[in-house]
Amino acid sequence: MNEESREPFKRLFFALDCAPAxxxxxAQWRGALQLRSGRPVPAENFHLTLKxxxxxxxxxxxxxxxxxxxxxxxxxxxxxxxxxxxxWRRAGALVxxxxxxxxxxxxxxxxxxxxxxxxxxxxxxREFRPHLTLARDYRAPVPESVEPPEFFLxxxxxxxxxxxxxxxxxxxxWPLGSQ
Length: 179
Ligand code: ATP
Ligand code: MG
Fold this sequence. Notes:
22% of the residues lie in helices and 36% in strands. The protein is of the alpha+beta class.
């Protein structure tokens, strides 16, 4: 057994991953903003969080995966249009967000939340606000973009990620819309 798998807890979240070509396109577009504040999120970490689980006993991961698998039966393939650049002041985050969240995304998140209820992982669930974080510790106005953002995040699956030392690793994933 390696060092990592002996860890009793893992920091977990469900998310939509961003395709490599799209990561590149978004990072390139971000570069053109010439940000003077914040720490840019590495492009390899671009994602859209569906549900944050926090610290989870590794013994429960198999059951969490079973519960997540039951969600996909109703879930459709979906596209999120990231067309709004925004600053979340309290969080100090520069984010790309959809002006309009697609109903299929909201349904997926709702179903995931329901599926995770029995695990009692969250004290105070936050309102779901879909976003992709571009920079953290961002303390400045919304930067002017020459080219308005319009990135089509197409998701044909969702995944359970482990967050460890600033990097993410997919532990399991489930197809969307394959029924
Ligand atoms: P770091 O915290 O190491 O700077 P990070 O924020 O990317 O990096 P995590 O804190 O593990 O890594 O977060 C993973 C994902 O879960 C991110 O999308 C983050 O925004 C989200 N997240 C973290 N904490 C919460 C929370 N309390 N509620 C909702 N989402 C959260
Ligand atoms: Mg964090």
